[in-house]
Design a protein that fits this description.
Layout (H helix, E strand, L loop, with lengths): L3 E4 L2 H13 L6 H21 L14 E6 L4 E6 L6 H9 L5 H8 L4 H11 L6 H4 E9 L8 E6 L4 E7 L5 E8 L9 H12 L6 E9 L17 E10 L16 H12 L7 E7 L5 E7 L16 E5 L2 E4 L2 H4 L8 E6 L8 H6 L1 H23 L3 H8 L11 H6 L2 H19 L4 H7 L2 E3 L2 E6 L1 H6 L8 E5 L3 H5 L5 H5 L5 E3 L2 H7 L4 E2 L2 E5 L13 H24 L6 E4 L8 E4 L7 H9 L10 E4 L4 H6 L5 H15 L7 H12 L1
This protein binds adenosine-5'-triphosphate.
Subcellular location: Cytoplasm
Subunit structure: Homodimer.
Keywords: ATP-binding, Chaperone, Cytoplasm, Nucleotide-binding, Stress response
Length: 661
Amino acid sequence: MNKQTLSFQAEVAQLLHLVTHSLYSNQEIFLRELISNASDACDKLRFEALNDSALFEDAPHLEVRVAFDKDAKTLSITDNGIGMSQQEAIEHLGTIAKSGTRDFMGKLSGDQKQDAQLIGQFGVGFYSGFIVADRITVESRRAGLKAAEGVRWVSGGTGDFEVETIERTARGTCVILHLRDSAEEYLNNWKLKSVIAKYSDHISLPILMEKEEWRDGELINPGDENGGRQPGSMLKTGEWETVNKASALWTRPRKDVTEEQYTDFYKTISHDSQAPLTWAHNRVEGSTEYTQLLYIPAKAPFDLWNRDKKAGVKLYVKRVFIMDDADSLLPTYLRFVKGVIDSSDLPLNVSRELLQESRDVRAIREGSTKRVLSMLEDLAKHDRHDAAAATADGVSDAAEVVDADDQAKEGKYSQFYAEFGAVLKEGLGEDLANRDRLAKLLRFASTTSDAVRVGLADYKARMKEGQEAIYYITADTLAAARNSPQLEVFKKKGIEVLLMTDRVDEWALNYLHMFDGTPLQSVAKGAVDLGKLQDEAEKKAAQEAAEAFKPVLAKLKEALKDKAEDVRVTTRLVDSPACLVVQDDGMSTQLARLLRQAGQQTPETKPVLEVNAEHALVKKLDGSVHFHDLAHILFDQALLAEGGLPQDPATYVKRVNALLV
Ligand SMILES: Nc1ncnc2c1ncn2[C@@H]1O[C@H](COP(=O)(O)OP(=O)(O)OP(=O)(O)O)[C@@H](O)[C@H]1O
C-alpha cells in the first residue's frame, strides 16, 4: 500500500482535541495507557497462540520495552504482542469502536477540570499519547503476517493520519512519541522508572529499560588526574533490565501486599482516581480453585446504567488473560465491581463460548457473587450511625471498644448505597438464590428518618404491637412521599412507613412480597386494613360513618363513573378529603406514570377514590347544588396530591374558579 492519508472519525477528532486541551494536569497517565495496551496485545497473542503456537515465531518471551532518545526527543514503547495489520491499524487507531463512547461524549460538560476527571475515568487509551507528543508514529506487524506486511501509521493528532506498508521483521507494535518541548522530562531514565513503578508495577509482563551507568567526564588536561574533568553523564550500557515487579499482585499472599499496593492496583485496572471503598482478596479452595481480588468502588462511573458495558472483572487462567465477559463472572446487578479472578483449574485452550458454559465458571460466578454480598454485609454491619451519634452526645459505651479497622468502615455502607443502591435492587429480580440476603441490604428513608438508612430488619424490630405488615409508599420525591394523604392515619397512629423514591423501587418490590415472614404492604394499594392496630371503637365509628354516607356515595360513584373504578369511605385519611388507591393486584399509579413517561403501554385501569367522610369538603357534598363540580374537583385534587395531572386541567381550573368567585 502506498502512503495514504485518511481522516479520523469525528468522535476521535473530538476526543483528541479534549485530550490535548484538558489532560495536561495529569500528563503521566499516557505511559500507563500505552503500557496497558502493550500488555493487552501480549495477552491477546498468548491467547491466540494457545491454538496456534507458530504465532510465537522465534520470540516466545513476551515483553514491553520502553526507550528514549534524547537527541531525537522521542520516547518509544515497544511490545512483541499480537501487532496490527494495516486494516486493523486504520480501524483501531482511527475510529472508536466502543459503544459507550457516544454516551461518554454526551457527558462532557466543557468544564476542563471536570472533563479531565471524567476522561481519566473513561481511559482515553492510545490517544493519551497526544498529551505529551505532537506526533505519534506507530510501526506494527501482526503475528502470522509476513515481514513485508508491516504498517506505519503517523499522525499529528489533528484531523487525519497517514498509513503505509513497511517491511518489519519484528512482530508486535512500536509506538514512537515525538515529545512536545513541555514533555522533555520524560527523556529521563529515573522519571520513566518512577512513573512505571507508580502505575504499571503489577502488569504481569516484564517491562524493560536499557540500563544506564554513570560515566565521569573526560579529563580537561589529559594526563593530569587532578586537573579537573568535563561534567559526567549517564550513559546507556546496551544491557536491558526489568523495571517492574512483573508479579501479578493477586498471586501474592495477602500479608505481602500493602494497602497502598491494593489501592494502586485498583486504580490501574479501573482508571478510577479515587481509592476503592473496600476489597476482598481470597484464595478459594474446593472443587473449583481460584483466586479472587474484588473491589467495590467509591463512586459510580458515568455509565453505570449501561447494562451492556464491558465488565470490570477479568478472568485469568494461570495469569493468562482469558475474558472479561460480564454475565459469566458476575450477575449484571453487580456490574460496578472491579477486579481479577484467576483460576488454576480451567483449561486454557477452549473457546470463550465453551468457557461460558463451563461448570467451573458457574461455580466461580456463584462464589464471587457471595463474596461481594459478604463484603457489603460487612460494610452494612459497621455502618453504625447510631453509635456515632451516641458518642457525639458524649454517651460512649466503654464496653464496646471499636477497633480501628471497624471504625474505618463506618459510614461506608451509606456511601456505597447512595452510589449503587439502585443497581443492587435490580438483584431482587435477577438473583433469586440471593434474594433474602439482598433484601437485608436494602435501605430506605422512612417517616422517622430522612436519611436512606432504614433496613427492613430495623423496621421490623421497631414495628408496633399488633402491626402485621411492613408499610411503604412510592413517589417521585421524598417530599411527595412524606406529604402523601395516604400516610395520614399511619402518622396519627405513629406507625413507621418506608418512603421509596427510586425509580426501580416499584419494579423491585414486585419481587419481594415478604421479608422475614412479614408481608410488605403498599399504603396506596387496596383498602386500608390496620387490623389489630385499630380498636373496636374506631372500627364501629368508621362503620357508622360509612353507613350514614351511603346515599352520597352512590351519587359520587355515578358522577365519577368514567374516572374511578369505585368510590368508598376510608379511615386512612385524617386531614385530606380524598385520595386515590389502586386495587390490591393493580399497578400503582406511580409505576403506570413512569411507564407512560418511558413511552410504554400501560393497562387502562381506573383508580379507586377513597373519601374522608369526616372532612368538611366531603360533608358539603350532601345537598350541594355544585355536587357534580365538587365531585370532580375532589377526584382531580386527589390526583394532584400524588403528583399526577387531571386528565383535562383546563376544565379543572374552570371548576375551581367557578367556586371561588
Ligand atoms: N500495542 C498495541 N498492539 C496491538 N494493538 C493495539 C496496541 N495499542 C492499541 N491497539 C489497538 O488499538 C485499539 C484502540 O486502543 P485504545 O487504547 O484507544 O482503546 P482500548 O485499549 O480498546 O480501550 P481502553 O484503553 O479504554 O481499555 C485497541 O483496542 C487495540 O486493538
